[in-house]
Design goal:
Blueprint: H1 6-27, H2 44-68, H3 72-75, H4 79-94, E1 97-98, E2 113-115, E3 121-123, H5 124-134, H6 139-147
Antiparallel strand pairs: 1-2, 2-3
Length: 158
Amino acid sequence: MPDASPANRDEQIAALAGQFVAYLRQGTDVDIETPEAVSDARGFTVLLAAIERLDLALGQLLDFASVYDDGSPSLEPLALPTAALTGEYLRHATGAEWLTPDPDDPMPDDSLTIVSADGIAIDLLGVARATLLSGAPNVRAIVTRLIESPDQEDRGDT
């Protein structure tokens, strides 16, 4: 049985995000940042630029998929890696942490939930599914909203 420890789960999510970066670089003409390149020392502008590139790459994949069908069914498999990559960006840039599902829960949750340093939890798998089904990926809007400070009008670096 595979190790279900939180550390192993985090490593698996990070590996999936890294594989998705390679997939997007090969399958689109967008230069996708690795999560490690989006560190908290570089500021929110770098994070938002990376997420914007992710939206652009996802948009290209939607365009490719629309040539063959309506795009929705063929893009569902991209929801999990999109959520993983978005979460890894947030982890590296903001100190967010993956929420580990309760191993004793009889109905485990299959979501990828990340918790910001401020304690805000967001189901990134749900966000990824919604943005892929929308036809116009906009993960950046969700991430911008998540990292906005409620007591500041303008952070100056967003």
